[in-house]
Structure formats: structure tokens, C-alpha cells
Specification:
Low-confidence stretches: none
Number of domains: 1
Helix content: 10-25%
Order of helices and strands: EEEEHEHEHEEEE
Number of strands: 10
Strand order of the largest sheet: 5-6-8-7-9-10
Shape: globular
Largest sheet: 6 strands, mixed
Radius of gyration: 16 Å
Length: about 190
């Protein structure tokens, strides 16, 4: 399946890809360069073709925000990128831009576990993905539930067609252990 690309944000038409390259309205590449404790940049690769390949993958993630921001079920929440491109480490899917981890924050600045589950179900039903993991844990010092979505999108070719068909793998994890495979389970406490 070939992805239709907005020509304004097509990474293939850029001379170079930098942290300021826009992937969607209000979404530069910098939005995906590391996380708060693990900032990164594109200095780890000087290869413009590799940067374009990464930007093609991130284009898919960036466009999730437009659909999210206009969906009425999520109007009182904010989608936050927790982990994305990281130059260090062994996770090639993160380095390639395919894998991004998200939190859903309510209007009080707290992770909303119920809405996180709802978003995971929405993405399961409406996205092509290789893997969607709903991750819960109670590792916070206060024992509160923490929820995040780890989303791995299919690898794209230069023409924005998939390299392979999406795998549609699902899993739910709780405190570092698999709770379910092939389905999403909401964990409340």
C-alpha cells in the first residue's frame, strides 16, 4: 500500500534533512530527536539518504498528531512523545524512526490510563502498524499506574510504499511482563 504524501512535507524533495525539517504542520524532525533524558540529534549520521529514510518513517508518526488533535474523544488530552530517535542503543527500529513511544496526558498534566487505552484501541482499528504495545507499570514511587503506547510502523521504501505488509502485532505489558498477546487489555490498578 502506497502512502499519499503532502508535497509540502515530502522528505524526498528536501536537499537535506535537519532537525528543523517539517514533517507536518507544527512537527519538525526535532520533535522526535530523543526524549527529555536522552536528547539526540542527526550528528550520528551525515548520510542524507539515511536521514531521508528516517524522515519518511517519522512523517507517518507526525501525521498521527493531526488526526489525534481533531478527534473529539481526545480533546482534553495531549499526545506526548516519550521516546523516539536515539543515536545510542541497540534498538534499530528507534534509530530508523519506525518505533516511537507515546504518553497521553490529561489537562492536569497527569497520564490518563483510560484514554491511553482508548487511543491504543483507536490506533489498532485505524492504523497499519507492525507492532502496538500497551505498556503499564506501577514503578512510580507512589505506586500509581503509568501507561504508554509503543508504536512501531511498517518500514517505508523511497516511494512511500511498504517494504513488507504490516504485521499487526499487539501486546499488553504490566510491570515488565507480558499480560496478553494479540489483544489489548486495560489495566486500571
Amino acid at each position: 500500500m502506497k502512502i499519499i504524501i503532502d508535497p509540502l512535507y515530502n522528505p524526498n524533495s528536501q536537499v537535506d534533512i535537519t532537525s528543523t525539517t517539517k514533517l507536518a504542520m507544527g512537527m519538525p524532525v526535532a520533535s522526535f530527536l530523543g526524549s527529555a533524558g536522552n536528547r539526540s540529534n542527526f550528528d550520528y549520521t551525515g548520510d542524507v539518504n539515511q536521514r531521508k529514510a528516517i524522515a519518511r518513517q517519522l512523517y507517518l508518526h507526525a501525521n498521527l498528531f493531526g488526526a489525534f488533535n481533531t478527534h473529539p474523544a481526545f480533546r482534553d488530552t495531549r499526545l506526548v512523545i516519550v521516546e523516539a530517535i536515539a543515536a545510542e542503543g541497540n534498538d534499530e527500529l528507534k534509530k530508523s524512526g519506525q518505533k516511537v513511544t507515546y504518553n497521553l496526558i490529561d489537562n492536569k498534566g497527569v497520564i490518563d490510563g483510560t484514554k491511553t487505552f482508548d487511543l491504543a484501541v483507536f490506533w489498532k482499528d485505524h492504523l497499519d502498524y507492525d507492532e502496538l504495545v500497551l505498556w503499564y507499570d506501577t514503578f512510580n514511587p507512589d505506586g500509581s499506574i503509568y501507561a504508554q503506547i509503543i508504536l512501531t510502523l511498517p518500514e517505508l521504501q523511497e516511494n512511500f510504499d511498504y517494504v513488507k505488509l504490516p504485521k499487526f502485532k499487539l501486546a499488553t505489558w504490566y510491570n515488565g511482563n507480558v499480560t496478553s498477546v494479540d489483544e489489548l487489555v486495560e489495566i486500571l490498578a
